[in-house]
Amino acid sequence: MSSTNFGITPESLLRQEVLDLKAYPVPDSTGMVKLDAMENPYPLPQSLREEIARLVADVAINRYPDADAQRLKACIRAVIGLPQSLDVLLGNGSDEIIQLLALAVAKPNATLLSVEPSFVMYKMIAAFTGMQYVSVPLTEDFALDLPAMLTAMQQHQPALVFLSYPNNPTGNLFDAEVIAQIIEAAPGLVVVDEAYYAFANASFMPMLTRYPNLLVMRTFSKLGMAGLRLGFMVGSKVWLAQLEKLRLPYNVGVLTQQVAEKLLQHHDVLLRQAEQIKQDRAWLYERLVGVADVRPYVSDANFILFRVMHADKIFQGLKKRGVLIKNLSKSHPLLVDCLRVTVGTPQENEQFIRALQESIHQFV
Ligand code: PMP
């Protein structure tokens, strides 16, 4: 190694956007009741686990997976009832698809537009890919501000607009009519991110044939497969054929492909769990309404955002009692004193409510 190598530092070599980034935070949850990451809390039935064990035993892990994941894609098409005119693109989680989209459009000065507060990866991935990032604040009640959106689109001509539907971290579904107007006015692609689709009764999937610049993204993470890392996006063949070129070869591993296929054959099991989570959400919401000084927001997702005085201390109080949720209190001016709890099993939800009440009582 020559002595000049020592002069090469991250500061001298890396892009400023990278130096400025903070890595996506994943706190240690060992031994905690984990209600911070919107996972499905229910394990699979024993018989299905055994079927998966047998399947995995026979998987040829010495071979690369099917690069096009044809069987898995066929399963997904069948489950969502996709018309022939539309295509599916698979990602190693939907995060990877967001990145792939940004890479595809990242010409110098290209803009990614989203709303805030929303999913933080839209902004992070804009930085990863050197895109300009523009955000439009939601209204006080977390609705889309249509005039502000139209003005921002006019001004910044975004190549990509991301809308989380339902929105993370607020949990609400935006007005579908307003989204339609945004799609119609957008100068580029609009991605409706339906990560929480399983817990809502609404989707833009049926609109894909009407709007050629619309793409709909979903993930299996919230439906009970977070560990597999599998997301997908649906759109017209014209767009997806181009985007496919950027998908890294073999991005969906052989274990993910095979296990996801098996689980999709038992889609009813996952849907029943989602139904249960919706019932648990209603219970949790009612209980939160009943806790003094707590204001929960109505949710169409598998989590509930709530506002509470001394949120930082309450978050710590919960942690001390073994319950990990998400502290959003300092993440955005609209989220001051806000915490977000993922819906867990009834037992976990009770434990959370108890820990919350105890933490609040410290202050009264
Ligand atoms: N979109 C939204 C709105 C999300 O909240 C998340 C996960 N928190 C994702 C996409 C990414 O999910 P995954 O990469 O696990 O598919």
Automatic annotation (TrEMBL):
Statement: the UniProt record of this protein carries the keyword Transferase: yes
Designated name of the protein: Histidinol-phosphate aminotransferase
Keyword match Transferase: yes
Taxonomic superkingdom: Bacteria
Organism annotation: Candidatus Nitrotoga arctica
Similarity remark: Belongs to the class-II pyridoxal-phosphate-dependent aminotransferase family. Histidinol-phosphate aminotransferase subfamily.
Cofactors, names only: pyridoxal 5'-phosphate
Uppermost EC category: transferase
Native organism taxonomy: Bacteria, Pseudomonadati, Pseudomonadota, Betaproteobacteria, Nitrosomonadales
